[in-house]
Amino acid sequence: MDEVALDEQARLSALLEDSAEDLYEHAPCGYISTLLDGRIVRINTTLLDWLGYKREDLVGRRHFSDLLTVGGRLYHETHFAPLLRMRGEAKGIALDLKAADGSRLPVMVTSIVKSGDDGQPLLIRTTVFDARDRRAYETELLRARKEADLERDRLKNLNATLQMTLLPPALVNVPGLEVSSHYHVASSDEVGGDFYDLFPLAAGTWGLFLGDVCGKGAAAAAVTSLARYTLRAAAVYDSTPASVLANLNTVLTHEYNGTDPRFCTVVFGLLTPDEDRGGFRITLASGGHPPAMLMRSDGTTDFLHTPGGQLIGVLSDIHIATTSVYLAPGDTLLLHTDGLTEAHTTATGGQRYGDDALLGFGRGLAPTTASVVVDAIRDLLDTFGTGVDDDTAVLAIHVPRSPSEKQDEQ
């Protein structure tokens, strides 16, 4: 072995030859021994330096509880000391010690009861670890969590406010119609992309629409806002339902193309009173949207299918499906977004609710009114709980019977 290696070994041996007394006095943690009544009988230099006391100030003169804050002393008397007596040890207890200058030293304390050969307890040995860094970390963590909670609350309020701006403040009153709507928010953390509206047009007609933008958040909200105002503006220019959706498709494909396409499903309807028979005639145009459900006054219920309608905003040249139907007095038409039918239910073992279940639900209600069916769907969505993972919008219109028709039916 060369001289360099021998010197290294000699220096290492010298470092390892610390006496047990030195290891105790200058350990990287505090040591304190007390009698069973808490009187201090021994304390190492490390802890004395932390607290700023002289050995003669504490040994034989003070109790361990004298080093504790008021709150720490109360905890010691009610929890720490009883735990020691019952189990003979107490591990990882967070306390604050009072230093000689009045400052506080956050520590983690572990104590064990030392017994004699006869099994009788003699004294308590306590190890004290400096927890200032840990306490600072925990304090910072709590501060960061509070800030995160406040930011989350601000975001929820912002999302709720933004969501309200994307929906009509109130649906217009259409003479001869009862109208009801509901918007179910799946999560307050993100703005959804569902939207609907009912508004007057020229010559005694009314337009209505209901749609669902792909995605969530600010990007979806921007498309939702654009879609709502485009539909209303397009309907004033040309109220033919297929033309309205074609105009919306042109706007979306122009504004959102390339690497960031944005699309939606929409159904647009044109309502016209039927002066001869009473009731209304409605023409519906669908761009890839779930079919509306018609609940007749005689109790029959079925979907108004518009097969072949393509998503709005994907292709520049699309096919838009159209259907027309007469709404007689007592009939109710329901429009909905797919958050309803795609919700998971416990009744089906977590499977999707589905179109068949919704159709059965409608048949169980018919004949019905707009407010009754919307209230029933609101209650249905509540039973799904967290199974509703997408926002849901519903819009229902009902042609009330005249008082004479109600009397004749009775």
Structure commentary:
This protein has 410 residues and is α+β, with helices and mostly antiparallel strands. It is 37% helix and 27% strand. The chain contains eleven helices and 15 strands. It has helices spanning 3-15, 20-25, 45-51, 55-58, 70-87, 132-165, 217-237, 241-255, 354-365, 370-384, 403-409; strands at residues 30-35, 40-43, 89-98, 104-115, 121-130, 178-184, 194-201, 205-213, 264-273, 280-287, 292-295, 301-304, 321-327, 332-336, 392-398. The strands form three sheets. It has a five-stranded antiparallel sheet with strand order 2-1-5-4-3, with helices on both faces. Strands 6-15-14-11-12 form a five-stranded antiparallel sheet. It has a five-stranded antiparallel sheet with strand order 7-8-9-10-13. Strand 11 and strand 12 (301-304) form a beta hairpin. Helix 7 crosses helix 8 (241-255). The longest helix has 34 residues, at 132-165. The radius of gyration is 38 Å and the shape is elongated. The mean pLDDT is 86.
